[in-house]
Design brief:
globular; 25% strand; metal-binding; mainly beta; 1 helix; CENP-V/GFA; three-stranded antiparallel beta sheet; carbon-sulfur lyase activity; three-stranded parallel beta sheet; 113 residues; Metal Binding Protein, Guanine Nucleotide Exchange Factor, Chain A
């Protein structure tokens, strides 16, 4: 069964197109830290999609340097019902505001954001 994706107020409700995500990231870049007042971010130019009622950013698409959007969407993990963070990959850890768990997989260890 594919998981439900839902904003905070429930006005946006989507069923994911697959039962499991391609990957799960804990991104530590400064862009998302500032955007969401949280410790995680991706650091790319993004097309963002928000709930018109509660304002929550539900998903986004990274934009390539030529202006084309990548062929997949990134869903904010907190909006995915029952998402497991157990094997999440940590990226842009140089900007981490919280300790990266020892032994965690880091796709871009210490990368600049």
């Amino acid at each position: 069964m594919n998981p439900k994706i839902e904003c905070q107020c429930g006005a946006v409700q989507i069923t994911a197109s697959r039962p499991q995500p391609l990957s799960v990231y804990c991104c530590h870049c400064t862009e998302c830290q500032k955007q969401s007042a949280s410790a995680f971010d991706e650091g790319n130019t993004l097309e963002c999609y928000f709930c018109k009622t509660c304002g929550v950013r539900v998903l986004h698409r990274s934009v390539l340097p030529d202006g084309q959007g990548k062929p997949y969407l990134s869903v904010k993990g907190g909006c995915v019902e029952g998402l497991s963070w157990e094997n999440a990959e940590h990226i842009y850890t140089r900007s981490a505001r919280v300790p990266v768990p020892e032994g965690s997989y880091q796709t871009v260890p210490g990368a600049q954001d």
